[in-house]
Amino acid sequence: xxxxxxxxxxxxxxxxxxxxxxxxxxxxxxxxxxxxxxxxxxxxxxxxxxxxxxxxxxxxxxxxxxxxxxxxxxxxxxxxxxxxxxxxxxxxxxxxxxxxxxxxxxxxxxxxxxxxxxxxxxxxx
Length: 125
Fold this sequence. Notes:
Layout: H1 3-9, E1 24-28, E2 31-35, H2 38-62, E3 70-72, H3 73-80, H4 84-92, E4 99-101, E5 104-108, H5 109-124
């Protein structure tokens, strides 16, 4: 592994050109084993954690939310006490927001809450 690549991954590590570092790749059957030093592994994990936090912050700034704020079609049916066809009609008429992720219909929880509160006001006063 070139010194530049090691320094890009672990900039705090004192890498000296010409020195031997432990980077072995062992091929066994279908699986590859990659052996690296603990310090370099920890640096990689720290970088991934750092970038993950930056991505989450950027997504929050853009108004994107993780799938924890979304429910699938089955859960929406239970929450709204509606059948599949009834939810399809609500989607088609634009009365409830949704998206399709990997071929699966997903509803934002805010849409479910909005629909419930609108229905409550219309029916219950």
